[in-house]
Amino acid sequence: MEQETQVSTAHAKGLPEPTHEISVAELQTRLGHGGPLFVLDIRPAGERAEWAIPGSSHLDIYQALKNGDLNAAAAVAPPPNTTVVAVCGAGNTSKIAAEQLRKRGLPAVSLIGGMKAWSLAWNTAEMTSSDATLVQIRRTGKGCLSYIVASGNEAVVVDAALDPAIFLGIARTRGWAIRHVLDTHIHADHLSRSCSLAGQAGASLWLPEQRRVSFTYRPLHEGETLAFGKSTLTCLSTPGHTRESVCYVIDNRWLLTGDTLFLDTVGRPDLEADPDESLARAILLHGSLRRLFELEPELMVLPCHTSSPVPFDRTVITAILGAAREAVHLGYDAEAFARDLLRRVPLTPPNHHVIVKYNEAGVLPSGDLTDLEAGANRCAVV
Q: Which of 245, 271, 273, 244 lies closest to 260 in space, CA to CA?
């Protein structure tokens, strides 16, 4: 989107009226290419604290705009020759901010759908080994991390959190055939697209063995291995975040940890659980982490969530296992670890009961998914 022309000028010349909005897809593309943009988040500070567009600036003028303050955006000072993209929660109040900025002669647009729509924006990063290529597909607003790992022309997908067309498109452009689709556990903060993706790709659908889901899948057990190309994926049982949680080791190089282990913290054990079950899971998590921390410390930890906005920097979100072990401070007393963990869990993810039900049924709701999935992920213990 080029710098905007004033509406009156366009009308006088018989040109189409300029748009005063920008779509998530266009903003995603422009941020990915480093376009001259000044993204202005006008939401209250408490809303921004949990999730934001990477690189955005913040000015808490939401209530002032709602109250009709005609000078609410007067302090906005973007760099010269830069389009301002105003962002709010749902894309309504940001229109008022953009209009005020245009009245000052600044090119300004509003993000259609606001942060709710931004929750589906994504970007990628990748790394390679001698036998395989790993592509990390990141929902930049939501913090969900999915993976395509390919060896030769065969690929596996782990924790698919976006439209299946995205995974199919990436595979098609690389000449890869998706052979296996896996989840690390039954997710609670986003809708799993794994069932749909496996069906569209003609791939095998694998889940850790459990009795929660009502659809057909191939169960993975402790120590089982899947082969693809010259690579192998091995299942490790790591209960704690959920009872069925597993991690996947690929080629003794990459450790896909789901919501069991993040780069510097661990997954919460309390979702869909009463206090006794939460404590029991937290104790199980201690044992699972001890097991992981005994693995090769140079393994690359690749979780399925991150709590920070994902930048468009093409850098894989990862850390070596040894660094994650140092950050977690596990200790030896499992019950003390568990009780401390439960004291630090954040608020539960929005709509998690509904999301879990859909994921257990293996179906996606019809219509717009943004309201159901909107908001930051809250899977990590802070």
A: 245
Q: In the sheet that 231-237 helps form, which strands lie side by side, from edge to edge? A: 225-228, 231-237, 246-250, 254-258, 300-303, 319-320
Q: In this structure, which long-range contacts are made by residues 248-251, counting pairs with CB atoms below 8 Å and at least 24 apart in sequence?
A: 248/158, 248/182, 248/184, 249/295, 249/299, 250/132, 250/134, 250/149, 251/129, 251/131, 251/132
Nearest to 215 by CA among 236, 194, 201: 194
Reduced to 3 states (helix: H, G, I; strand: E, B; else coil), residue 135 is: strand
Phi, psi of 143 (to 5 degrees): 85, 10
Q: Digits of tens for pLDDT over the chain (382 positions)?
A: 333 323 333 333 443 445 799 999 999 999 988 778 999 999 999 889 888 999 999 999 999 999 999 999 999 999 999 999 999 999 999 999 999 999 999 999 999 999 999 988 999 999 999 999 999 999 998 899 999 999 999 999 999 999 999 999 999 999 999 999 999 999 999 999 999 999 999 999 999 999 999 999 999 999 999 999 999 999 999 999 999 999 999 999 999 999 999 999 999 999 999 999 999 999 999 999 999 999 999 999 999 999 888 999 999 999 999 999 999 989 889 999 999 999 999 988 889 999 999 999 999 998 888 888 887 788 999 8
DSSP letter at 266 equals B
| Tokens read off for 220 | 């993975």
How much is the pTM? 0.91
Provide the b/e sequence for 164-200 (b: ≥16 CB within 10 Å).
Answer: bebbbebbeeeebebbbbbbbbbbbbbbbbbbbbbee
- Residue 324 is which amino acid? A
Inter-helix orientation angle 164-174/194-201, to 10°: 40
Q: Which two tokens stand for residue 244?
A: 């069925």
Q: Report which DSSP code applies to 379.
A: -
Six-digit token pair at 192? 């799993």
113 φ/ψ sector (left φ>0, alpha ψ -120 to 50, else beta): left
Phi, psi for residue 270 in degrees, rounded to 5: -110, -5
